[in-house]
Amino acid sequence: MAARNAMSNQERECLQKELATHQETAGQGYQSLHKDKEAVKKASNSTIITFDMMQNLPVPTLTHNSMFYLRQLWEYNFGVHDCTTDSATMYMWSELVAKRGADEICSCLMQYISNLPLQVKKLTCYSDSCFGQNKNFEMICFWNWQIVQGRFSQIDHKFLVRGHTYLPNDRDFSHIEKKKDTAVVYIPTHWEELVRKVCRQKPYTVKSMVGSEFKDFSDLVEQHTRRRKDSNKKDVLISKARWMNFGQGVDQHGREVKHLNEVWLRYSYSLDESWSKVSLLKGRKKIPPATSISLPIKYPNGHSILKTKVQDLKKMIPYLPEEHKQFYIDLRTSNEALHEVVIPRIAADWSLVADYLEYEVEDKKLIREKCHHDPLKCCVELLENWLSTNKGASPKSWSKLIEILRQIKILTSITEIIVQDLAKAGVFV
Length: 429
Description:
Elements: H1 2-41, E1 46-53, E2 57-59, E3 73-82, E4 87-94, H2 102-114, E5 122-127, H3 137-148, E6 154-159, H4 168-180, H5 188-198, E7 205-208, H6 218-222, E8 243-250, E9 256-266, E10 276-279, H7 307-315, H8 325-329, H9 334-347, H10 350-360, H11 364-373, H12 375-389, H13 398-407, H14 412-424
Parallel strand pairs: 1-5, 4-7, 5-6
Antiparallel strand pairs: 1-3, 2-3, 3-4, 6-8, 8-9, 9-10
């Protein structure tokens, strides 16, 4: 019994030490934020921002009993708070427009940066450590690209400790949360109107994001290398990093050093800690990323939602005001997007439909006849069959469809159009 009590005491002491270290690190994070705020006030070429995603906002906000069993549409809100001017900008969109991943965060930040004064050359950012949105390799590539383009000379991105991430954005969001229970919202734009008016003393700037403003950063990421070892052959632990530095930084000896196409990492907020220096150059030849990269639109036809969710939303129509019913009547599923976006492109080429069906189906003669009488219907049946057998397919499995199309000697340009449209329509989600 005594040994058991002694062991529990040891475990208790260990946990208390871990808690003390955790709280100390969290305190250092807030101190760093405060010091950076004060430093920026003395530098006209610097600014400091914090950013965060708000909890999803439901649409519509009906109070009918049936709502408990039905899934609502989500409105997303990404907030950027300028600590220099103490102003907030909200980037808002619904899940019909885009998702809420790293591409979306980088797209919003790109919009924000485009509105910053050109004399701002040093940017300091604070955020939480959400891996899917803020603390990932895509964000590293995005910040490095801003340096390579010459937009900034130095970028510092610092991450607060989990559980202690109270940022100015949370204060901004609290004003919206207070109105959440009483808000009358029937369509996504109603939330945007509410957010514009929610803070009377210093109204928020609200930017309604559209599909063409969300970019696909995969080409940018491809021009960088994700390395597992730093310049000293030590493991690179992005998940544990508290501080990322790009462009130029001050080393532990107080010297200012320029470093292009490198990310410097620290695992604390201490100025005395040595940087973990990681090259981002592509491959063994150390190829630098291009200064100008074409970023394709990620959702040119919008982001389709699941059929079951659309069905739930349509069940709400009887409880909505007449003027807002059409919005829900017009909602389309992934399969409906297939018919509207993809099929019209393919149906125009009769030989394409016939050859495709002949390749895929055993009874070629019967399919030939069907295709001759109604090529559009046959094309629809074939594609729907492919989608049903490949339900939940990841982007990697698209290569299977590409290979099928190429084997039947379809022009590469047509192949790419078909596959891109399938992806954009959301039929693989």
